[in-house]
Amino acid sequence: MTNQETQKKETSELLQLVSFMIGDEEFAVDILIVQEIIRMLQITKVPNAPDFVDGVINLRGRIIPVIDLRCKMGMKRIEHDKNTRIVVVEVIGKTVGFIVDAVTEVLRIPSSITEAPPEIVAGVNSEFIKAVGKLEDRLLILIDIEKILSTSEYKELEIMQ
Question: Which of 73, 81, 97, 144 is geometrically suited to a Cys-Cys bond with 86, CB 3.0 to 4.6 A?
Fold first, then answer.
């Protein structure tokens, strides 16, 4: 493949994403890892769970740990409202729910309009930022859901399931 053909292939590749809000920021994850998006359910607290874990839910007979994504990203917790959703994802062979303020849309964007996050953003606490999408009227932060939690945190979640 020539260099030009490679460039054409890269610019034509579409990313399919689910976007959601946390505070005033819009984030997105690859749609392929999203199993479903549900309204808030009754969350059962788990004793001695890490701070960012709200508890577990029973989703059609499956016990799923639920993580407050605001808390995990170092933002302050807020009361859940009618827009709050749980994004259920499959990550490293585990099913986990992430609480987000609101799900905004499912969208397709060409990979060519994304770029690596600026070095200042790509600090120690934001290694989960995969890229930044430059849409016409806004920026979209693409996150790598697998990197939101450390290996030891995944092991803690395993105990809850």
Answer: 97
Give the CA distances from residue 95 to residues 33, 98, 111, in Å, rounded to whole numbers and listed in that order. Answer: 10, 10, 27
Domain, as residue range, for 33: 10-160
Query: Cα dihedral angle (158, 29, 140, 53), rounded to 10 degrees?
Result: -20
pLDDT digits (tens, 9 = 90+) for 78-116: 999 999 999 999 888 889 999 999 999 999 999 999 988
- 4 within a domain of the structure (yes/no): no
What CA–CA distance (Å, rounded) separates 9 from 133? Answer: 18
Beta strands in 14-122 (DSSP E): 14-22, 25-30, 34-39, 53-59, 62-68, 85-91, 94-100, 102-110, 114-115
Q: 142: domain CATH number?
A: 2.40.50.180
Domain presence at residue 5: no
| pTM for this prediction | 0.83
Q: What are phi and psi of 31, to 5 degrees?
A: -65, -25
Beta bridge partners of 98: 67, 87
Helix (H, G, I), strand (E, B) or coil at 138: coil
